[in-house]
Amino acid sequence: MKKLALLCVAVFCLALVGCNQEAKxxxxxxxxxxxPAKVFQDCQPGKDGMAYLEKVSTEVQQQFVDLQNEAAxxxxxxxxxxxxxxxxxxxxxxxxxxxxxxxxxxxxELFQKVLEQYRKENGVALVIPAEQALSFDESADATDAxxxxxxxxxxxxxxxxxxxxxxxxxxxKPEEKAGEMKEDAMKQAGEKNEAAPAEKPAETxxxxxxxxx
Length: 213
Hints:
Elements: H1 2-27, E1 31-34, H2 36-42, H3 44-73, H4 79-121, E2 126-129, H5 143-150, E3 161-162, E4 168-169, H6 174-195, H7 207-212
Parallel strand pairs: 1-2
Antiparallel strand pairs: 3-4
Helix pairs in contact: 2-3, 2-5, 3-4, 4-5
């Protein structure tokens, strides 16, 4: 009977040790690895972004061809024409840079949003790039899962407006534009009132003139 009791105690102790080890394993932080290059290459928003930039590239190439033809015709003409062509080339280059920056920014914002969503939904404490991991199990690779989530998102790529100062600006919303027009009108009205000459007071006869009369 004592042997049976001791055996039961031993089994209980072994079970307790096993539970503690399992609890420690579950308590350890969960890590996931992701291949960002593969995500951007395989996800639909990444493909849409590349297609958008290819479209912009085609348009820009045609604009450069037109400018080259215009420059060839402008040989021997005044310097103002040459300066105009050079300015147009600079604006085209600024547009290309602004378009690329817009696509990269939108994709990066979506990528960060999806990573955070995946991390919270799957109880992941840390997500690292696959290229920085020396070794990892395939079960830790979340690349395909991230691609699947990004495929559900819709990204609209809109051409930024390149101002003459070279800075890219997003088109103003109708209500914002209306507000700006109202402010401009009020400002112009105020300037007109300030510029208008003040009415001179009616001149009264001088006392001396009154006596002379």
